[in-house]
Specification:
The protein is of the alpha/beta class. 39% of the residues lie in helices and 17% in strands. The chain has helices at 15-27, 42-52, 96-105, 110-128, 147-157, and strands at 7-11, 32-35, 55-60, 79-83, 89-93, 135-137. Strands 1-2-3-6 form a four-stranded parallel β-sheet. Helix 1 runs parallel beside helix 2 and helix 4 packs across helix 5. The chain is globular, with a radius of gyration of 15 Å. The mean pLDDT is 95.
Length: 164
C-alpha cells in the first residue's frame, strides 16, 4: 500500500511564503517541505519548522538568488551579474533557461555545481541540525544533464537517499 506525500517547496524564500507553508503543515494539508537555504528567511524558517516537527528536505537552488558557497569566484560558470534580494549589485545564479542553455553548450563546470551542492547541504545541516531527509531542485534544475549526477554523488556522500 502506497502513501501520498505532499511537499511544499520554497520554505525559506520569504517570511510570507513561510507562514503559508507552516499554516498548511499545521492544518494537515502537507506532509513535508523543502527548504531553500539561500532564501532570505531560511534561518527563521528552519527554526520554526523544527519547532513544529515539520519534515524538511533541501530545495537545491542554483537558478535564483545568491550562492551559499563562501567564495563565488569558485563557481563562476553558475553566476552572472545581477541584483540580490537586498537590492544590491551582486553575483547571482543564472536563470533556469540560461543555465539549461549553458549546460547544453558544455559551459557549466560540474565541479562548480559540486561545490555549491556541498555548500547547500552543509548549510542545511547547520540550520536544521541534521541532514535533509531528501533533496529536490528549485524549478527542477536538479535534473539537468550532468547536474543530476553530481547532486546524486553529493547526496550519497551525506547519506541522503531520496529525491523527487
Amino acid at each position: 500500500m502506497g502513501r501520498l506525500v505532499i511537499t511544499a517547496d520554497d520554505l525559506g524564500y520569504s517570511s510570507r511564503r513561510d507562514d503559508g507553508i507552516l499554516s498548511c503543515w499545521e492544518s494537515g494539508a502537507i506532509t513535508r517541505s523543502s527548504l531553500m537555504v539561500n532564501g532570505i528567511s531560511a534561518e527563521s524558517a528552519a527554526k520554526k519548522a523544527k519547532e513544529r516537527g515539520l519534515v524538511l528536505g533541501l530545495h537545491f537552488n542554483i537558478i535564483e538568488g545568491t550562492p551559499v558557497c563562501d567564495d563565488p569566484s569558485r563557481i563562476k560558470s553558475l553566476l552572472c551579474d545581477g541584483v540580490d534580494a537586498n537590492g544590491k549589485c551582486s553575483k547571482v545564479f543564472l536563470d533556469k533557461g540560461r543555465l539549461s542553455s549553458e549546460v547544453d553548450k558544455g559551459n557549466i563546470d560540474m565541479e562548480e555545481v559540486r561545490i555549491e551542492a556541498r555548500a547547500q547541504i552543509l548549510k542545511f545541516i547547520e540550520l536544521c541540525g541534521e541532514s535533509p531527509k531528501y533533496v529536490d531542485g528549485h524549478q527542477h534544475a536538479h535534473v539537468l544533464p550532468g547536474i543530476c549526477n553530481i547532486l546524486g554523488e553529493e547526496m550519497q556522500r551525506y547519506g541522503i537517499s531520496e529525491t523527487r
